[in-house]
Amino acid sequence: MAAVTPVSVKQISAGSLQGVIADFAATTDNADTWASGIKGIQFICVTQEDTAGTAAATGAGASWAAATGTITFHIGEDNSAVRLMVLSGFSS
């Protein structure tokens, strides 16, 4: 597990929610974390942006800590490029 930083970040809006699309380099590993600082996260979506070595290693997901906005990646194969979309807004 290591802290990672996106190579690019784009702000978006989706109705009443704010969004961020962040791209991470092909060095992102399972259990890496991003201290996004995003509060009020409502939804996250992660995609693996490169080809996995095997079909069993395909896939990406993430979880987040609501209090801090820290996002933890759950990736089928280490050293993957990842795209993350976060929607945030009202606090739950």
Using only C-alpha atoms, the radius of gyration works out to 13 Å
- Low-pLDDT stretches are none
Could you please say which CATH topology applies here?
Immunoglobulin-like
* Tertiary shape: globular
Please report the number of helical segments: 0
Major sheet: order of its strands? 1-2-7-4
- Strand composition percent: over 45%
CATH architecture verdict = Sandwich
Q: Give the biggest sheet.
A: 4 strands, antiparallel
* Total of domains: 1
Mean pLDDT across every amino acid position: 92
Give a written overview of the molecule.
The protein has strands spanning 8-14, 17-28, 33-35, 41-48, 60-64, 70-75, 80-88. The chain is mainly β and 92 residues long. The chain has one domain (8-88): Sandwich (Immunoglobulin-like). A hairpin with a 2-residue loop joins strand 1 (8-14) and strand 2. It is globular.
Q: Could you give a short description of this structure?
A:
The chain is mainly beta. Helices cover 0% and strands 54% of the residues.
Q: What layout of secondary structure does this protein have?
A:
Elements lengths: L7 E7 L2 E12 L4 E3 L5 E8 L11 E5 L5 E6 L4 E9 L4
What keyword list fits this structure?
54% strand; four-stranded antiparallel β-sheet; mainly beta; globular; Immunoglobulin-like; 92 residues
